[in-house]
């Protein structure tokens, strides 16, 4: 009887062991089959053109990314086999607003748990005027961050400069204008003004342009 009872105990332990082993296997398979998730976003705020890093919990090769329904261009994707994750680098697209970040990959879709904050970007900005000294006829380069609907006027004080070239470029969704103008022959030491064709002031230099006489 003792032998029968011992065999019964051993059989019971064996059944329990098999049950827990199968349960662990199921858990393991469940983790491997987990749905696509965004695990981190760095940083969690920025303005148009800023670079953002997003990590997801799966190894993926292609994806589509949105900032609150505005599509973003993907700069790079780095899949890591060791921990089965992918790091995505992107820039905040033009027109993006505060809201969820959404990613679509491998016929799956995931979005951030919290809103990504898009800071307001100045509508326009005078980036640089170089050089700030020169003689009449010299070329001066003016760089503006703004999508202008017309070629503006440039004045050295009250004297209008001739425009040698006008170029628009787009980088990371931001429009930049490069103006090259010639210093007017009658210009004196003065502030440089950039105006619309109806004489509305758009920008002005923070310092006086200095005329060099030869």
Overall description:
This protein has 2 domains: 38-118, Sandwich (Immunoglobulin-like), CATH 2.60.40.10; 125-211, Immunoglobulin-like (Sandwich). Helices cover 14% and strands 44% of the residues. The protein has 1 helix and 20 strands.
Task: Provide tags for this entry.
elongated; 4-stranded antiparallel sheet; mainly beta; 214 residues; 44% strand; Immunoglobulin-like
* Number of beta strands: 20
- Domain tally: 2
For the terminal residues, how far apart are their CA atoms?
121 Å
On the 0 to 100 scale, the average pLDDT is 85
Helices, by number, come to 1
**CATH architecture heading of the largest domain:** Sandwich
The CATH topology name of the largest domain reads Immunoglobulin-like
User: What fraction of residues sit in β-strands?
Assistant: 35-45%
Top CATH class of the largest domain: Mainly Beta
Summarize the main sheet. 4 strands, antiparallel
Principal-axis shape = elongated
CATH superfamily of the largest domain: Immunoglobulins
Widest beta sheet: strand line-up: 1-3-7-6
Q: What fraction, in percent, of the residue positions are helical?
A: 10-25%
H and E order:
HEEEEEEEEEEEEEEEEEEEE
Task: Show the helix and strand layout.
Blueprint: H1 2-32, E1 38-42, E2 45-46, E3 51-56, E4 64-67, E5 70-72, E6 74-80, E7 85-91, E8 101-105, E9 108-111, E10 117-118, E11 125-130, E12 133-134, E13 139-145, E14 153-156, E15 159-160, E16 162-171, E17 174-182, E18 192-195, E19 201-204, E20 210-211
């Amino acid at each position: 009887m003792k032998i029968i009872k011992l065999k019964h105990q051993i059989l019971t332990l064996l059944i329990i062991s098999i049950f827990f082993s199968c349960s662990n296997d199921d858990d393991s398979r469940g983790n491997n089959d987990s749905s696509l998730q965004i695990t981190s976003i760095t940083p969690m705020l920025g303005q148009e053109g800023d670079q953002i890093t997003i990590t997801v919990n799966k190894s993926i090769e292609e994806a589509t990314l949105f900032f609150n329904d505005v599509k973003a261009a993907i700069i790079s994707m780095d899949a890591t086999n060791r921990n089965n994750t992918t790091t995505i680098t992107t820039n905040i697209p033009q027109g993006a607003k505060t809201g969820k970040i959404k990613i679509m990959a491998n016929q799956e879709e995931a979005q951030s748990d919290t809103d990504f904050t898009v800071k307001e970007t100045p509508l326009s900005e005078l980036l640089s005027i170089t050089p700030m000294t020169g003689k009449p006829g010299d070329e001066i380069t003016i760089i503006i961050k703004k999508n202008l609907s017309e070629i503006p006027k440039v004045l050295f004080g009250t004297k209008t400069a001739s425009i040698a070239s006008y170029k628009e470029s787009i980088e990371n969704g931001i429009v930049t204008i490069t103006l090259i103008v010639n210093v007017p022959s009658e210009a004196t030491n003065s502030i440089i003004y950039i105006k619309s064709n109806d004489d509305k002031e758009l920008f002005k230099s923070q310092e006086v342009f200095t005329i060099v006489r030869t």
